[in-house]
Amino acid sequence: MTKPNVNISKFFRSDRDAVENGKWFPVAPGIELKIRKATSKKAADIRRKLAAGFPAGIPEEMQHENGLKNLAYGIIVDWKGIEIDGEEAPEYDADLMLDLLNDLPDLAEFVASISIDDNNYRVDDTATAKN
Predict the structure, then answer these.
(1) For the chain, which residues make up each domain, given as ranges?
(2) Whole-number pLDDT of residue 1
(3) Which residues of the chain have pLDDT under 70?
(4) Is the dihedral angle over the CA atoms 18, 21, 25, 30 positive or is it negative?
(5) Measuring CA to CA, how many Å separate 103 from each of 34, 99, 108?
(6) Which of 74, 78, 83, 104 sits between 20 and 30 A of 114, alpha carbons compared?
């Protein structure tokens, strides 16, 4: 039996820069967020810091808030087009983002889903092949 000739790296090679430093994703018309992959070093560091002091695990009542903090401080890198009180928001501020994520749970879910989807961080082999 002949084994198929499949280049597995084509399916599993991530863009390390996008994973660690984020990549821009449209969120709504005129609004974009730069989002790291959930497995990035920065996101892992934030999760570790949030879990410090809880050897038995983070208490259930704190897990949701800590998840939002991980999104705001570890996964979301920057924003474009965000307005606060009718004014364009200043440069990215994780504290302001945490407030937004608390107020907009669907936004938090949207960001989380982007950050865990491996396909969002794949190397584009077609662009590489053209160069």
Answers:
(1) 16-121
(2) 65
(3) 1, 125-131
(4) negative
(5) 20, 6, 9
(6) 83
